[in-house]
Amino acid sequence: MLAADRQRRILELVEANGSVLVSDLVNELEVSRMTINRDLGHLAGTGAVTKVYGGAMSRSKPDAPSPHDCLMCGTEIGSRTTMTLVNDNGTQSQACCPHCGLMLLSQHSDVTAALAQDFIGGQMVNIRSATFLVAPDVTVCCVPTVLCFEERGDAERFSRGFGGRLTTWEEAQVDVRDHMTLMKEGTEA
Ligand SMILES: [Zn+2]
Ligand SMILES: [Zn+2]
Prior knowledge:
- With 189 residues, this protein is of the alpha+beta class.
- It has two domains: 3-58, Winged helix-like DNA-binding domain superfamily/Winged helix DNA-binding domain (Arc Repressor Mutant, subunit A); 83-188, no CATH class.
- The protein contains six helices and ten strands.
- The strands form three sheets. A four-stranded antiparallel beta sheet has the order 5-4-6-7.
- Helix 1 (3-17) packs across helix 3 (33-45).
- It is elongated.
- It starts with a helix and ends with a helix.
- The structure holds zinc ion (2 copies).
- One zinc ion binds next to helix 4.
């Protein structure tokens, strides 16, 4: 089987199932893991799939910009909860959600702008004017969940259904930091 045929077959499997495991491909195509990994690397390089540990996932939108990983936790950044920090030299750092974004922000002193995606509409909003909802009863990305809303009314409506505490970005940052410190102490004890 030619590499091109194999890769076409892999792509079919990814598209049909949403994801594939290297081990399944090894069985299905009767080639070595190394060969499969090379094929997946090639497909990931063309943007056809996203390589993940032990396999590959389909790209949700073929025309989406290439995926970035969260600078804080390494999670691939989705399309609903992104947070972007702009440093004073113009470089951008991406986080998977406000949870990670606010943690990242607390570690960087040279951030000139911080934008988070509105959880309802998806538009990027300045975190200074946004309302954050901390620890609602829903897991979207990292725990505790932190969601960003441009309109306070949206955050209030959401919290009526899912709980959580309405905060400014500064309060949300403190909450996340406290929580993470508690968790760390818990595992060390
Ligand atoms: Zn993250
Ligand atoms: Zn996250």
